[in-house]
């Protein structure tokens, strides 16, 4: 009974973190606590989230979320792929004033592809988005994820940390069959931006 009480407390704590950062309680949190236990789950986030937040600031949200999408697709996790692909949509709309070429729902379905096929789909959508410089980062992310190369600088070390971090998140999300929820970015709290994106998507349909 005490263990279950601690687990519930840990879930509330981690869901509260999600609400603070992104404006909603992420569905994955209960699954992580169930998988790792309350103490380890809270400790894992305490060790990893500060570095993740620094990566967002240093590499920028678009590059960071694209790396998270790529790793999550490679690992077969629709939950994380959707959350970060939706974040890409919001960041891109805010920065470019137009919708990203491919919706998160579509991108998050690019699971179980050969690495070369996944790379090609990511390259195609980045080229259509006029994000040609990000192709290099997709290549770096895939190379680090496959252990074909080791980090050679601080920026690649940040991507390597994302690879390790999302190996854990993706494994839990995939094993639990967790359904996607919302964008894993502070812009998820921008209701006007989300409404604008939805309106643009409807017009394009």
Q: Any overview of this molecule?
A:
Helices cover 75% and strands 0% of the residues. By secondary structure, the chain is an all-alpha fold. The chain has a single domain, classed as Up-down Bundle (AhpD-like), CATH 1.20.1290. Helix 2 crosses helix 3. The radius of gyration is 17 Å and the shape is globular.
Give the SSE map.
Elements: H1 2-22, H2 28-36, H3 38-59, H4 61-75, H5 78-96, H6 104-107, H7 115-128, H8 134-145, H9 154-176, H10 191-204
Helix pairs in contact: 1-2, 1-3, 2-3, 2-9, 3-4, 3-9, 4-5, 4-8, 4-9, 7-8, 8-9
Labels describing this entry:
single chain, 205 residues, mainly alpha, AhpD-like
How do you describe this structure in short?
The longest helix is centred in the last third of the chain and has 23 residues, at 154-176. Helices cover 75% and strands 0% of the residues. It has 205 residues and is an all-alpha fold.
**Strands, total number:** 0
**Distance between the amino and carboxyl termini:** 51 Å
- Major beta-sheet overview: none
Give the helix/strand class: mainly alpha
- Based on Cα principal axes, name the global outline: globular
Number of helices in the DSSP assignment: 10
Query: Level of helix content?
Result: over 70%
Low-confidence stretches: none
CATH topology: AhpD-like
Going by CATH, the architecture would be: Up-down Bundle
How many distinct domains?
Answer: 1
**How large, in whole angstroms, is the Cα Rg?**
17 Å
Beta-strand content: under 5%
């Amino acid at each position: 009974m005490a263990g279950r009480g601690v687990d519930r407390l840990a879930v509330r704590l981690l869901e509260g973190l999600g609400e603070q950062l992104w404006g909603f309680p992420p569905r994955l949190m209960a699954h992580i606590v169930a998988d790792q236990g309350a103490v380890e789950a809270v400790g894992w986030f305490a060790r990893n989230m500060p570095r993740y937040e620094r990566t967002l600031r240093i590499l920028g949200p678009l590059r960071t979320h694209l790396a998270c999408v790529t790793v999550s697709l490679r690992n077969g996790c629709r939950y994380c792929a959707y959350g970060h692909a939706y974040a890409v949509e919001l960041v891109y709309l805010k920065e470019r004033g137009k919708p990203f070429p491919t919706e998160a729902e579509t991108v998050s379905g690019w699971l179980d592809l050969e690495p070369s096929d996944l790379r090609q789909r990511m390259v195609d959508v980045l080229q259509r988005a006029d994000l040609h410089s990000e192709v290099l980062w997709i290549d770096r992310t895939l190379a680090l994820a496959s252990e074909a190369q080791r980090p050679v600088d601080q920026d690649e070390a940040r991507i390597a940390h994302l690879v390790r971090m999302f190996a854990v998140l993706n494994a839990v999300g995939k094993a639990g069959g967790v359904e996607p929820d919302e964008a894993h970015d502070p812009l998820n709290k921008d209701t006007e931006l989300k409404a604008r994106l939805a309106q643009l998507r409807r017009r394009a349909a």
